[in-house]
Amino acid sequence: MKEQIRQLIEQASTIIIHRHERPDPDALGSQFGLQVVLQSRFPEKKIKAVGEMATSLAFMGTLDVVGTTDYQEALVIVLDTANQGRIDGKEALSGRQTIKIDHHPDEDPYADVQLVDTTVSSTSELLVHLLNEWGYPIPAAAAIQFYAGIVGDTGRFQFRGTTSRTFSVAAQLLDTGIDTDWLYRNMYQTELAALQLQGYVLQHIQLTEAGVGYVVLTQEMLATFDATVEQASLLVNSFAGLKGLKTWALFLETEKEVRVRLRSKGPVINEIAKEFNGGGHPMASGATIKDLTEVEHVISRLNEVAGAFHFE
């Protein structure tokens, strides 16, 4: 599989790199990192990274614009995207061939060739392992992107997906001389509106007897703090240290739907996310419900798994 992916990359003259919608640092880091490595290795190829940019992550780079005709003979690589419906750019599957590289559970095998490894912390880490096997050098401009992706998906190396292999990759990337001060400054700077909204979130946590914490942010509340849904979604772990918490959810109301960010300290929650038009990792998932009337249903399901779970 890995050798087949390498051959497809080396044979293609045009490569278009996609990832999931509403990108996080791993989605963008893996995308930009792979683009830089391939551009460095194959300067004669046309290699584009496409999709919508998250405002808070605009410092990571500039995305390309491509036309429909560009896909006709293109190799498309989709990164960090478990389900076809989450791909940012529906033209992704119109290329000559499609490769999927991901670390989420492989529940939707939408690509012609797939490399999925759920044992790694992030797609960025997976790509570094892959590039190392191929002998492709990783310049500093790519290393800082991959490092950002790993930092983002491991919560600064705190989450259980962090392994000794993760630290080995991080050390390799650091050895290229990347500026982590610049990276952390940009990744974790906070707008005043988002900081004030965080205060509201911390004051309005509801905790069930089963250990489910949740906060509901309506459109009206977001407008009050002049905060975007994107800014608010970053607050999902702001109350992760609450005593007695097993799982938690942040509900974000938009004009069309309610986005749900789900997290856990033990109970498996991605199966619940699937019930509500979502998915993800066992301990970190996302879902979508029609409106706020469904909040109670989501909490009820979380109560079931949290109530049956006991820490060792």
Structure description:
The chain has 312 residues and is of the alpha/beta class. It has 2 domains: 2-187, inorganic pyrophosphatase (n-terminal core) (Alpha-Beta Complex), CATH 3.90.1640; 193-307, Diaminopimelate Epimerase, Chain A, domain 1 (Roll). It has 11 helices and 11 strands. It has helices at residues 2-11, 25-41, 123-134, 140-154, 164-174, 180-187, 192-203, 219-224, 229-233, 270-275, 295-307, and strands at residues 14-19, 46-49, 75-79, 97-102, 113-116, 206-207, 212-217, 247-253, 258-264, 279-280, 284-289. The strands form 2 sheets. It has a 6-stranded mixed β-sheet. A hairpin with a 3-residue loop joins strand 10 (279-280) and strand 11. Helix 2 runs parallel beside helix 3, helix 2 (25-41) runs antiparallel to helix 4 and helix 3 packs antiparallel against helix 4 (140-154). The longest helix is centred in the first third of the chain and has 17 residues, at 25-41. It is globular and about 60 Å long.
Oligomeric state of shown chains: single chain
Mean pLDDT: 95
What is the CATH architecture annotation of the largest domain?
A: Alpha-Beta Complex
The ordered string of helix (H) and strand (E) elements is HEHEEEEHHHHHEEHHEEHEEH
- The top-level CATH class of the largest domain is Alpha Beta
Pfam families: DHH, DHHA1
EC number: 3.1.3.7
Keywords: Hydrolase
Protein name: Bifunctional oligoribonuclease/PAP phosphatase NrnA
